[in-house]
Write a structure and sequence with these properties.
The chain has 121 residues and is of the alpha+beta class. The protein has two domains: 65 residues, no CATH class; 54 residues, LysM domain (Membrane-bound Lytic Murein Transglycosylase D, Chain A). It contains four helices and five strands, in the order E-E-H-E-H-E-H-H-E. The strands form two sheets. Strands 1-2-3 form a three-stranded mixed sheet, with helices on one face. A two-stranded antiparallel sheet has the order 4-5. Strand 2, helix 1 and strand 3 form a beta-alpha-beta unit. It is flat and about 35 Å long.
Amino acid sequence: MKTKFANGMVTLSNYVPNQEHKEKAVLAASNIAGISRVQDNLILGQKSADVVEAEKAEAEKPGEEAWESKTYAVKSGDTLGKIAKQFYGNAMEYQKIFEANKPMLPDPDKIYPGQVLRIPE
């Protein structure tokens, strides 16, 4: 992946193998101190031999669903449980959000206002 940084904005470009990788790259960049904006120029579906093999392996995983998610900007007073209740109707579903945001979120109890989280479907 190629990155450029200027005036608080980072531009991400190049090919990524799938939507999950794209979302994680944008999420990681948006949570770096000093970054106020992320320009996403990432392109899905690079067809190099490595990516073709990765896609093949991904497609062969049983029970895997297509990767779709939303994002949510953490507000003061939020917890993963509170966010899970808002999106899923059940605070105990916080683990889905936690897993979708690893490794940027190493502890489910340590979120902060302004942090952008992926909310998987």
